[in-house]
């Protein structure tokens, strides 16, 4: 039987299996169009499912075995052929399982980048190709959007040479949740703790409008260290109107399907709640809640629709076999009677509520189910039981059993009663006080938000446009006046407002709000809130140029976070910020180690790197003269971002600008300019013309226009950047130094030395204040300032700055740094202008040697300077060749570089005079 015929058989079977037996023949005669063989094959499969004999019994005798054989027989050869095949950077090793859509392979990375094992999912050929490909593409998008440590993340994906999609997923070396619990003899509490990890992951998916739809033991693995991972979101369904609500293929496992799935109704998050109820039932009882007549898919579906689930506390002794019940209970470290007693009541109610036939009667969310399980673990009342005062009192007594037992040994019966009453009264007062506090905090927060909405109401503001900045200012006034007695609410709102100001680029307004938030969080003592407050306030300090203070706060935050899985996401953020400030302070080795650690955590957590981490790390690679490596890293991140994110996401713009910088650092200016312009347009759409994010990219565009020998355009762009940054940040902000330096460099090329010197000197003052005198940035500014001063004839000042730049570049990057040729050439020129040229022209020769070794093609100016030095030392023939060759190259490559042209014309004139003599 080929694949197409099998699909017809299965479709007819699904259509008829729920009908009465006497209708099968008539309905098949109507639908098989005279194909007697097809009719007999479907009848035989229906008969096998119903447990009866049909004539001829072609499929009944071998039912299940033949079913599996039909599905996989044609693919056995294909599986054997695929072993060793390369898919992208991976090599298939061997199959490790079969899913609803196809085979799953263990694979290894084979591109030599690093060692890595992955699970690769391949499509099964018996599926409809168009639908299968659509599902695979949907799975790739879904997985890319799910970023949770309990969800196996997407690593890569593509299409095989014969057009079949594949996905590379995180390989989880573990066993399913049930077997893990049995193997380790986990008690009920330990099993529930594991199950709550599953709930946490499913809730994460639901928050992103993703329903799993096929939760079952084989899709939940536990590794050797006890970490839970959810697999196979490939048949998940986005709960969104843009996706069709029905599918031509029913994709679920009957034993774990919800009634509405069996009925073919629209899928919601309630199906996952139901499946979690089934998993919890099996995890705690070792049984299934339904008892179908036989073990066929159709029988399970009928049971789900028609049978009431057995109460869990009854299920553990349901089969009547004392030995089986004892063995099952022993696996949970209990006796059968004790297990039944533990399940009776609350756990019964929780599981049965999750397994209600009607979705509306189940838990409203996975969080609600988890909340009831946590309540049981803490001996608090559960929502699934609406008990009266007796139930509440019983829960209270169990929750405080130790305290009450101690009291019983110390006082008489009357005192016990009195003590219990006092405890209850105290509990009531505490709960009352907590409730009043929470109510007051909620009311205050509501008043705060209402006040903000009132400001935006046109009836109150008489139609005036209200800016975001005005709303935030009003919020600050309300916090100051209305939330003085609610420190938690005050801190939360201060943090939110401070971050909003940061998002608008209003750093001066953000800093005091985040400082107050940190003070309140230190007083409160809650660790996670304190770490977040340290992180936010440090960001404000960093924006103000106070990098060492930010670094100290990040180190404090890191010390508060144990290096465990639960803290991985926050640790990655803290390490990223430490790396960034260490880079700003020119501590490149330590910075790189922390960047790589943060990137590793991000890849492990989310299956990809965060764009901003990539951008900053690649900046470090570029500054340490590894632009080509940075380009590869950025292109990979950009490709993934374009696949995962909306087309206008700011992260795409930032990665485009980063790639442009990588290309610019390699001298590929023509390729870099359009990337900058595309990034700039995206940022203007999202942030507006004057936002700091837009200005960062505009500054980059100015530098590439300069490098591409378009100085007038560069001057226009960079002048605008400087003006807008002065307007928004003030004259003393560190972020003004970069565009000032870039503007001065272009002015130098145009021979505007006085304007350039003034801008360089202002940039140098800012750099000395914020970065120090020996920082890499200080070297860059000193290089430019020395060049401008040389153009003005201020030789002593020029020499001092040029030597400072050379010393810094050698210390940071070594004696072959690609930043060295610039100041070395100007130092050689300076010596010639003093009529004291180096006898061997060592500085100029060293500059040319570095340019040649690094593959830099911009040798024209260097040849001119070396020629001028040789001319000054009496080596006229060599000088003539170099000066004329350099002049020709300069005319071709940088016709608008008036500074270089001026130097060339000076040396040409001296050469002419020398030759006339």
UniProtKB/TrEMBL annotation:
It is an enzyme of class 2 (transferase). InterPro entries: Kinase-like_dom_sf, Prot_kinase_dom, Protein_kinase_ATP_BS, Ser/Thr_kinase_AS, TPR-like_helical_dom_sf, TPR_rpt. Residues 90-377 form the Protein kinase domain. The chain crosses the membrane at residues 401-423. ATP binds at residue 121. The keyword Glycoprotein does not apply. The keyword Transmembrane applies. Its EC number is 2.7.11.1. One of its GO terms (molecular function) is protein serine/threonine kinase activity. Keywords: ATP-binding, Kinase, Membrane, Nucleotide-binding, Transferase, Transmembrane, Transmembrane helix. Gene3D superfamilies: Phosphorylase Kinase, domain 1, Tetratricopeptide repeat domain, Transferase(Phosphotransferase) domain 1. It holds the Pfam family TPR_12. This is Serine/threonine-protein kinase. It comes from Luteimonas endophytica.
């Amino acid at each position: 039987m080929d694949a197409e015929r099998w699909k017809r058989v299965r479709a007819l079977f699904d259509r008829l299996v729920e009908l009465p037996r006497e209708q099968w023949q008539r309905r098949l005669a109507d639908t098989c169009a005279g194909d007697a063989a097809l009719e007999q094959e479907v009848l035989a499969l229906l008969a096998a499912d119903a447990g009866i004999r049909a004539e001829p019994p072609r499929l009944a005798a071998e039912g299940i075995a033949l079913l599996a054989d039909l599905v996989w027989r044609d693919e056995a050869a294909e599986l054997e052929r695929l072993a060793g095949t390369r898919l992208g950077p991976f090599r298939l090793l061997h199959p490790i399982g079969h899913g609803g859509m196809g085979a799953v392979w263990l694979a290894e990375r084979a591109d030599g980048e690093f060692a890595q094992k992955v699970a690769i999912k391949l499509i099964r050929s018996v599926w409809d190709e168009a639908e299968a490909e659509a599902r695979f593409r949907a799975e790739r998008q879904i997985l890319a959007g799910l970023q949770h440590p309990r969800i196996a993340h997407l690593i890569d994906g593509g299409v095989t040479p014969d057009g079949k999609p594949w996905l590379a997923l995180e390989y989880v070396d573990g066993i399913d949740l049930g077997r893990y619990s049995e193997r380790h003899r986990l008690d009920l509490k330990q099993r529930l703790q594991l199950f709550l990890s599953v709930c946490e992951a499913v809730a994460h998916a639901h928050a992103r409008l993703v329903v799993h739809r096929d939760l079952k033991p084989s899709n939940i693995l536990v590794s050797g260290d006890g970490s839970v991972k959810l697999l196979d979101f490939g048949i998940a369904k986005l709960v969104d109107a843009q996706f069709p609500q029905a599918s031509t293929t029913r994709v679920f496992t009957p034993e774990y399907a919800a009634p509405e799935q069996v009925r073919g109704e629209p899928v919601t998050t309630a199906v996952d709640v139901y499946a979690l109820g089934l998993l919890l039932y099996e995890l705690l009882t070792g049984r299934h809640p339904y008892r179908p007549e036989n073990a066929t898919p159709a029988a399970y579906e009928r049971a789900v629709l028609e049978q009431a689930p057995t109460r869990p506390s009854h299920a553990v002794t349901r089969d009547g076999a004392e030995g089986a019940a004892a063995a099952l209970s022993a696996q949970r470290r209990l006796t059968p009677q004790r297990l039944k007693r533990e399940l009776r009541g609350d756990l019964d109610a929780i599981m049965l509520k999750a397994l209600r036939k009607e979705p509306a009667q189940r838990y409203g969310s996975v969080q609600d189910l988890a909340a009831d399980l946590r309540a049981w673990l803490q001996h608090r009342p559960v929502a699934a039981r609406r008990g009266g005062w007796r139930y509440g009192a019983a829960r209270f007594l169990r929750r405080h059993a130790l305290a009450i037992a101690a009291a019983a040994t110390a006082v008489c019966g009357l005192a016990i009663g009195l003590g219990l009453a006092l405890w209850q009264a105290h509990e009531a007062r505490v709960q009352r006080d907590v409730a009043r506090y929470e109510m007051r905090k909620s009311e205050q927060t509501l008043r705060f938000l209402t006040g903000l909405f009132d400001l935006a109401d046109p009836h109150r503001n008489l139609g005036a446009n209200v800016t975001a900045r005005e709303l935030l200012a009003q919020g600050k006034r309300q916090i100051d006046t209305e939330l003085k007695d609610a420190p938690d609410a005050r801190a939360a709102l201060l943090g939110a407002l401070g971050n909003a100001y940061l998002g608008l680029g209003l750093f001066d307004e953000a800093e005091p709000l985040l400082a107050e938030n940190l003070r309140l969080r230190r007083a409160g003592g809650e660790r996670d809130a304190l770490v977040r407050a340290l992180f936010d306030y440090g960001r404000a300090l960093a924006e103000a140029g106070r990098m060492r203070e930010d670094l100290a706060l990040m180190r404090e935050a890191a010390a508060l976070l144990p290096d465990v899985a639960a803290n991985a996401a926050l640790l990655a953020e803290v390490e990223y910020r430490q790396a960034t400030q260490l880079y700003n302070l020119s501590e490149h080795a330590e910075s790189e180690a922390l960047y790589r650690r943060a990137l590793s955590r991000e890849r492990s957590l989310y299956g990809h790197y965060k764009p901003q981490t990539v951008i900053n790390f690649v900046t470090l690679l570029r500054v340490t003269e590894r632009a080509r490596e940075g380009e590869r890293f950025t292109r990979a991140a950009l490709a993934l971002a374009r696949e995962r994110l909306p087309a206008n996401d700011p992260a795409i713009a930032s990665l485009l600008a980063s790639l442009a910088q990588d290309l610019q650092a390699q001298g590929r200016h023509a390729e870099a300019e359009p990337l900058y312009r595309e990034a700039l347009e995206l940022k203007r759409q999202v942030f507006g013309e004057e936002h700091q994010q837009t200005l960062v990219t505009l500054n980059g565009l100015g530098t590439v226009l300069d490098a591409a020998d378009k100085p007038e355009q560069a001057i226009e762009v960079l002048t605008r950047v400087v003006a807008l940054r002065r307007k928004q940040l003030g004259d003393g902000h560190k972020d003004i130094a970069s565009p000032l330096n870039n503007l001065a460099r272009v002015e130098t090329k145009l021979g505007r030395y006085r304007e350039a010197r003034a801008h360089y000197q202002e940039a140098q003052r800012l750099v000395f204040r914020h970065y120090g005198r020996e920082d890499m940035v200080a070297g860059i500014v000193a290089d430019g300032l020395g060049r401008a001063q040389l153009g003005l004839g201020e030789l002593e000042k020029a020499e001092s700055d040029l030597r400072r730049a050379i010393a810094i570049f050698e210390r940071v990057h070594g004696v072959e740094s690609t930043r060295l040729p610039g100041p070395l050439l100007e130092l050689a020129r300076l010596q010639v202008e003093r009529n004291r040229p180096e006898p061997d022209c060592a500085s100029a020769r060293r500059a040319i040697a570095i340019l040649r070794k690094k593959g830099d093609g911009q040798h024209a100016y260097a040849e001119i300077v070396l020629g001028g030095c040789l001319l000054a030392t009496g080596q006229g023939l060599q000088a003539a060749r170099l000066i004329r060759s350099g002049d020709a190259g300069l005319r071709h490559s940088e016709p608008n570089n008036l500074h270089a042209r001026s130097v060339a014309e000076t040396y040409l004139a001296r050469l002419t005079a020398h030759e006339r003599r």
